[in-house]
């Protein structure tokens, strides 16, 4: 069993879990669908440039 006098102090709450929504607020709140649409637009633009040139 673990030695009780090892001098290790563990936090009492959260069990090591972090709530990022309470700690960090970003200026840009992007949803995954926004990222996918942005990438699709870049791909379409790249194909369009290939057709023109």
Which descriptors would you attach to this protein?
mainly alpha; 0% strand
Write the layout of secondary structure elements.
Blueprint: H1 20-23, H2 32-52
Summarize the structure.
The protein has 53 residues and is mainly α. Helix content is 47%, strand content 0%.
Structural write-up:
By secondary structure, the protein is mainly alpha-helical. Helix content is 47%, strand content 0%. The protein has helices at 20-23, 32-52.
What's the main sheet like?
none
Number of helices: 2
User: What's the overall geometry?
Assistant: elongated
Straight-line N-to-C gap: 72 Å
Structural class: mainly alpha
Instruction: Give the SSE order as H and E letters.
Output: HH
Low-confidence stretches: none
Return the average pLDDT rounded to an integer: 77
Overall radius of gyration:
24 Å
Count of individual beta strands: 0
Helix content: 40-55%
Q: Beta fraction of the residues? A: under 5%
């Amino acid at each position: 069993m673990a030695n009780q006098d090892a001098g290790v102090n563990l936090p009492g709450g959260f069990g090591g879990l972090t709530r990022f929504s309470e700690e960090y607020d970003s200026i840009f709140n992007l949803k995954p669908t926004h990222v996918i649409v942005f990438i699709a637009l870049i791909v379409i633009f790249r194909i369009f440039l290939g057709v023109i040139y």
